[in-house]
Each structure stands twice: as C-alpha cells, then as structure tokens.
Design brief:
This is Purple acid phosphatase. Keywords: Glycoprotein, Hydrolase, Signal. InterPro entries: Calcineurin-like_PHP, Metallo-depent_PP-like, MPP_PAP, PAPs-like, PAPs_C, PAPs_N, Purple_acid_Pase-like_N. It comes from Digitaria exilis. About 15% of the residues lie in helices and about 20% in strands. The protein has about 625 residues and is α+β, with helices and mostly antiparallel strands. The strands form 6 sheets. An 8-stranded mixed β-sheet has the order 1-24-20-23-19-18-17-16, with no helix packed on it. A 6-stranded mixed β-sheet has the order 15-14-13-25-26-27, covered by helices on one side. Strand 17 (about 345-350), helix 7 (about 365-375) and strand 18 form a beta-alpha-beta unit. It binds fe (ii) ion (FE2). Fe (ii) ion binds next to loops.
Length: about 625
C-alpha cells in the first residue's frame, strides 16, 4: 500500500481546508493533518469515533468443524528423515533468522520410545543463489543448531500419551537485510535428509525509513474450515511477517469439541483430573502452515490454549509451545520464550506473556521497562505490543478477565507511548478509540482485538452491554493471575460493571472471522486493514480500515527513572528520543521530496482560497 497519494491528498486538504481568516501558520498544519483522508480512509486524528457495531450476519455459521488429520494439508507429505513443518522466525535483527523443522515421526499410545535428538543433525545450507537439488556445495553457508523432543504424558486411564518427532532450531547469522536467500534444512549426511529448496527474504534493517511490506496479524486460529479460510485469505495478501497473538492449534480442545469428538470430556474420562491435549494436532497444524511459515517469519506468543497441563495434577505446562517455536528471547534479553521483543525495520515489536508473572515487581515488568528504555524512536519510531487476552474488550466473553494485568502494566506502556496493541482471546473483531485507564486519551495506544482466526470455539456475538448479557463479576476467571473486576467510576457506566450501550472507548466491533494487515508507511502513518473472510472472494471491500497516526510532538515521551533500571556499569543505553522532529528527520529523501511537494501544493491552494474570499474574524469551516 502506497502512502496517501499526493494528488488525492491535496484534493482532500483542499476540500477540508477552506478556512477563512485563519493565519497561515495554523492553516498549514490543519491541512496536513487531513492529508491521509485521501481515498476516504479515516485516520486516528479524526477520532475518537462514535462507537459502531456491525451486527452479526445470521446467514453465516458461527463456526465449523475441525479439519481431519487425514486431510492432505495436514497429513505427512514427506517420509523420514526428510524435514517437515518448516518454519521461520525473526531473530535479534534483520541480519539473523531462526529456521525450525521436525524430523522423524511422533508417537501416540501407551508404550512410547522417545526419539534421540542427537541421532540427526540440525543443518541449514543457504545462500543468495538457488542451487540444484542435492548440491549443497553450491551454498556458501551452512549453520548448525540444536534439537530436542518433548512428551505429553497423562498418567490416567484412557488418555493417550505422546512423544514428538525431533524438533530442530537453527539460527542463521550474517544475513543481509531485505535480501532473498535460498535454503535447505535437515541432515546432509542422511539419504533424503535434506528438504527441498525454499527461499525467504530477510526483513529490512531497523530504520525510520524502512518497514516490512505487510505484517499480517491473526489470533485464536485453530484448524477448522474457518481457520483454513483465514489462512488462505492471509496468504493472498502476501505478508512479509505474521504476528500470531496466541491460541494456535486448539489441540487441547480436539477431544472435547473438535472433530466430532467427546462432547463432554469429564463425562467420557471421569478419572482424568486434567483435560487431554491431542498433540498430533500440533503436527497437522505445522504441516498446514508450512507453505507460509517456510517463506516468512511467524512470530508467536502464548495463549491459554498453549498451557496444556500434563503429568500428575497438571503441574507441567506449555511444553509444546516451548519446544516447537524459536523466538528471539535470549537475543532480546528476556531468557524466556514467554515474552520477548524484536525489530522489523522501523517497528519494535514487544510480545508479552499474560500467563506468567506480569506484576510490576516481577521479572517480566523489569525486562519490559529495560527493553522500552533501549528503544530509539529515531530508529524504530513505531512500537507495537502484542499479547493474548485483551485489556479492552466490550464483548461478554472474557469481559474484564485480565484487569489485573492491565492495572499492573498499562501505565508503563502509556508512558512509553506504545503505538498499537494487538490481542486475541475474544473470538471477534474490535478496534478501540485511543484509551488509557478507560478514559479517551489522544496519546494512548490503539488497541485492536483480532481473536477471530476461526477456531473450534466459534465466533463470539454477545456484547456485555446487550440486555441480559453482562457477565457477573464472578464469571470470566483468568487461567492465570488474580481477579480484579471493577465497576466504572465515571461516565454513563458509573458505579456499574457493564455499560448499557457500546462503551465510548470501543470504536468498532464486528463478529466475523478474519485477519488484519498492518502496512507502516513512514514514521507517522500506518494503515491498518481488517479483512473479513467472507469478503475474500467478493468485491474489493474491507471490514475495517484506518490510518493510525503517530503524534510524537503532541505526545512527548515521559522519561523513566534511570535509577530504577539497574543500568549496567558504563551507563544505560540512550533513552528514547523526545524530539518532535526526530522521526521526520529520518524520512528518506524520496519521501521528503513528495512531502515538500504536497506541503507547497496545500499552501498554494489554501492561500488562493483565502484571497478569493473576504476575510473576517473567527474560524469558519466550509464543508
Ligand atoms: Fe484464548
């Protein structure tokens, strides 16, 4: 998506800027603020918007069945020792990248013999030129990594144990940014041990003038007919990075609600104190995603469906998530896969864990504080955060479920001017007006809930403000942390747990499956588009679209006390820029040329208009 076209922008500015008797120094900024309206796409500068709801389309089904593991998209397509479930993940910067895959066959049953991860090598052969099949010598580089297996064990009658194939993770280093590479992964010492050749293009280097082409955002995906529609639609939009905000496979639901399995788990397995998670769904999901994930990085964060308790009493959790995904945790100083950060061009992504300690006295908070302190907004003007359960949500489902996390962490994010927050968990779409502490605030993040990927639990359609749909404060217990449900202290919902209308902080909500695409244009503008699945093959329409506009001049960063950061000897890294012009200084020369051209056009148009109409005091806006 190109930046707002100069011609259309000038026309839009002309339409809106017939301001009479307004000093030119006020007129020009006002006109510029409206430039992005070209094409009729609103900007956050036009907000806050009146709350809007698009009613659920009753002609659509609320959900669909799980895709069976025998489906060709989920079944094994290669024979061991060939790699499968190949997936990429971003690393510390554009110069490195993680490659993961699985070899061997997983086992399900009562007598399992885990595979030996040391029995097969973890190699990635790669270079900037394609090589003939079997010709590893043509690749100038080879990187090696590590391998592991994991088991999901249930010491209860009737439940199936599982042990995985060998899961490999290799980090490539020394890559050139924004460059196409070709690779094969596997074990070159084994006949048939290497994959077919695949390719990827590295992310752009961190910088205010370079951004990933398109970032796809999806949540609560699962593996149903709706999930496959979402992924097909997402692939059509040709993203260069995928952000997945938790609840990936719903393997833990498969034997309960999926695939026509047991409708009542506790009825079918009365002696099992914990729910079985059917791990082969993870392998099917990895195969299904491989056409995308072997080409572009998939960045994940854990959701509640990744908890998957096992063992005696369920004391062991998150084993599959931790084993299967490579994430840049060590690279970003977190030392846990439950939260981490990375850069993609001029965007700093912060992935937070809602199912680990989020208290302001805890390790995650300290890490986040330090991570944000190290962000240089002149290099990565945009800071985008993501985690699984939303803080702002007006649906009945999961309403106020993670209030404790919000109360612990929101101030830190606000002070550091996080630009956008993505969450899932609620199976519907909702975009908020800029909001902080339930109060509209032009300097607060734009919160977007995108948990409408299409999983087996169906779409959420009830709103907490619908008659009779306000959950009781005892509902919606979080699967981690405490309960901090609260009544509002001001506004139309003062003294109440739920509003009696769509809250003012909820800008737009709709119960449809889909995914989103974020296209950052420059250090100021980013286009967000929500694509509904039912629009995929219809007219060129979108479910929701808005330019998210940064205003660093109006929303200066508030310094964080260096003493609280335990800075190492030698001092802390440079704090974030508070310069209002810093981001603009980094605009590329090409962008600068067009910007100057547009500014001059706007000034000329508005000056001509002003001279054609008699001057008089006051501001009169002619529309
Ligand atoms: Fe969830």
């Amino acid at each position: 998506m190109a930046s707002p076209s100069s011609t259309a922008a000038a026309a839009a500015a002309h339409r809106h800027c017939r301001l009479l008797a307004l000093p030119l120094f006020l007129l020009v900024p006002s006109c510029l603020a409206l430039l992005a309206e070209a094409g009729g796409i609103p900007t956050t500068l036009d907000g806050p918007f009146p709350p809007a709801t698009r009613a659920f389309d009753r002609t659509l089904r609320q959900g669909s069945d799980d895709v069976p593991l025998t489906d060709p998209r989920l079944a094994p397509r290669v024979q061991p020792p060939a790699p499968e479930q190949i997936a990429l993940a971003a690393s510390a910067d554009a110069g490195s990248l993680w490659v993961s895959w699985v070899t061997g066959r997983a086992q399900v049953g009562s007598n399992l013999t885990p595979l030996d991860p040391a029995s097969v090598r973890s190699e990635v052969w790669y270079g900037e030129h394609s090589a003939a099949a079997g010709d590893t010598a043509s690749y100038p580089q080879v990187a090696t990594g590590s391998a592991e297996v994991y088991s999901q064990l249930y010491p209860y009658p009737g439940l199936l144990n599982y042990t995985s194939g060998v899961i490999h993770h290799v980090r490539l280093r020394g890559l050139r940014p924004a460059t196409r590479y070709y690779y094969r992964c596997g074990d070159s010492s084994l006949p048939g041990g290497l994959s077919d050749e695949r390719s990827f293009t590295t992310l752009p280097a961190a910088g205010a003038g370079s951004y990933p082409r398109r970032v796809a955002v999806v949540g609560d995906l699962g593996l149903t007919g709706n999930s496959t529609a979402t992924v097909d639609h997402l692939a059509q939009n040709d993203p260069s990075l995928v952000l997945m905000v938790g609840d990936m496979t719903y393997a833990n639901q498969y034997l309960t609600t999926g695939g026509k399995g047991a409708t009542c788990f506790s009825c079918s397995f009365p002696d099992a104190p914990i729910r079985e998670s059917y791990q082969p769904r993870w392998d099917g999901w990895g195969r299904f995603m491989e056409p995308i994930t072997s080409k572009i990085p998939l960045m994940v964060i854990e959701g509640n469906h990744e908890i998957e308790p096992q063992g005696n009493g369920g004391e062991v959790t998150f084993v599959s998530y931790l084993a299967r995904f490579a994430v840049p945790s060590k690279e970003s100083g977190s030392n846990t896969k439950f939260y981490y950060s990375f850069n993609a061009g001029g965007i700093h992504f912060v992935m937070l864990g809602a199912y680990v300690d989020y208290n302001h006295t805890g390790a995650q908070y300290s890490w986040l504080e330090r991570d944000l302190q190290m962000v240089d907004r002149q290099v990565t003007p945009w800071v985008v955060a993501a985690w699984h359960p939303p803080w702002y949500n007006s649906y009945s489902s999961h309403y106020q479920e993670f209030e404790c996390m919000r109360q612990e962490m929101e101030d830190l994010l606000y002070r550091n001017h996080i630009d956008i927050v993505f969450a899932g968990h609620v199976h519907a779409y909702e975009r908020m007006n800029r909001v902080f502490n339930y109060t509209l605030d032009p300097c607060a993040p734009v919160y977007i809930n995108i948990g409408d990927g299409g999983n087996i639990e169906k779409i959420d359609i009830d709103h907490a403000d619908d008659p009779g749909k306000c959950p009781s404060p005892g509902d919606n217990h979080p699967e981690f942390g405490g309960i901090c449900h609260m009544n509002f202290t001001s506004g139309p919902a003062k003294g109440k747990f739920c509003w009696d209308r769509q809250p003012e902080w909820s800008a737009y909500r709709e119960s449809s499956f889909g995914h989103g695409i974020l296209e950052v244009v420059n250090s100021t503008y980013a286009l967000w588009t929500w694509h509904r699945n039912q629009d995929a093959y219809g007219e060129n329409s979108v479910g929701d679209q808005i330019y998210i506009v940064r205003q660093p001049d109006k929303c200066p960063l508030q310094p964080t006390s260096a003493s609280s950061l335990n800075c190492p000897t030698g001092g802390c890294p440079s704090p974030m820029s508070t310069s209002s012009s810093g981001a603009h200084l980094a605009i590329t020369s090409g962008q600068l040329f067009w910007k100057v051209l547009v500014i001059m056009s706007v000034v000329l148009i508005c000056t001509v208009e002003a001279t054609r109409i008699p001057m008089f005091p006051g501001l009169i806006l002619q529309r």
